């Protein structure tokens, strides 16, 4: 269980190179593009060093636009973070496109007690599902691991079958709404009612369905109070990554930030960053975190719901 004083940090680093070429991804510049040079290397380490000067325990989400483990620099910084006393957790994401031997090499020198891994499943790119599953299970013996399915509109009808196949791994599986345009419609807000039913049945929790698929309004939010969003370009710190946010200071020249004193109403009509930190107050009202990973949490009233089905998370009024 995470400390109540833990600050959740979302730090997208805009590393864009990837070993996969998913048809729905705009980040990929190609694994073989040797000219690619990550422009934010110096900023990344400098911002992290200043972040560590804050008087907080930190749960840091290092989020690339491409594949994390393609970058030796990112792996080096993550390794260093796990060795710091005030870092409680380092959450990483990968497409599991490497071998067990390669992942073993990547994680050399890491304090694995502080690592949690989110694995994105991309059915168009995986060549051998059995090998992919075996690699996941090997890593799950060493750290918390969860799987994410992307609800790309043309693939939505396939996701229930994929979900059923992956359930045998006994690893948390979540569904992220597709973010972007497809055939003139803006997602994740353009899913049909039929698609929503497909996705509801396989969603990890009521919370993830309501925010990622159903697109409810965020309401009161802990962003800026219990979590922060860092812009790697200039080190500016904001309450979250949505267009309407609150400036909290900067971390490029020093630990120059002031957190909010409590939750505030979200100024955006929809939330598309909640899969990172679970900021809306409604999450804390209905769920308890049980570990350092993004999907280590459980419904607070599950025992009561066993005796009274009306209290099940899918039956209550979620707001």
Automatic annotation (TrEMBL):
Top-level taxon in the UniProt lineage: Bacteria
InterPro entries on file: Aldolase_TIM (IPR013785), Radical_SAM_PqqE_MftC-like (IPR050377), rSAM_sf (IPR058240)
SUPFAM superfamilies: Radical SAM enzymes
Name under which the protein is recorded: MoaA/NifB/PqqE/SkfB family radical SAM enzyme
Lineage: Bacteria, Pseudomonadati, Pseudomonadota, Gammaproteobacteria, Oceanospirillales
């Amino acid at each position: 269980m995470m400390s109540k004083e833990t600050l959740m940090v979302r730090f997208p680093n805009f590393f864009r190179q990837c070993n996969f070429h998913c048809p729905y991804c705009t980040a990929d510049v190609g694994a073989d593009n040797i000219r690619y040079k990550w422009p934010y290397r110096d900023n990344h380490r400098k911002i992290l060093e200043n972040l560590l000067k804050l008087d907080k325990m930190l749960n840091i989400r290092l989020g690339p636009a491409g594949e994390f483990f393609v970058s030796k620099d990112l792996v080096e910084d993550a390794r260093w973070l796990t060795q710091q006393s005030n870092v409680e957790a380092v959450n990483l994401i990968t497409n599991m496109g490497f071998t067990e031997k390669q992942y073993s090499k990547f994680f050399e020198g890491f304090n694995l007690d502080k690592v949690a891994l989110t694995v994105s499943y991309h059915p168009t790119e995986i060549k051998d599902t059995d090998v992919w599953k075996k690699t996941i299970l090997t890593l799950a013996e060493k750290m918390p691991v969860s799987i994410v399915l992307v609800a790309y509109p043309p693939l939505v009808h396939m996701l229930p079958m994929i979900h059923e196949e992956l359930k045998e791994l006994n690893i948390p599986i979540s569904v992220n709404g597709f973010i972007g345009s497809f055939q003139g419609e803006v997602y994740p807000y353009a899913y049909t009612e039929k698609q929503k039913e497909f996705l509801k049945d396989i969603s990890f929790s009521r919370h993830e369905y309501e925010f990622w698929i159903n697109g409810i309004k965020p309401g009161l939010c802990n962003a800026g109070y219990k979590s922060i969003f860092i812009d790697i370009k200039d080190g500016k710190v904001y309450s979250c990554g949505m267009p309407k946010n609150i400036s909290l200071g900067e971390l490029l020249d020093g630990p120059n930030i002031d957190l909010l004193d409590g939750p505030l109403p979200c100024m955006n009509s929809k939330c598309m960053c909640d899969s990172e930190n679970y900021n809306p107050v409604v999450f804390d009202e209905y769920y308890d975190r049980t570990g350092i990973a993004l999907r280590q949490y459980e419904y607070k009233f599950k025992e009561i719901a066993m005796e009274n089905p009306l209290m099940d998370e899918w039956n209550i009024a979620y707001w």
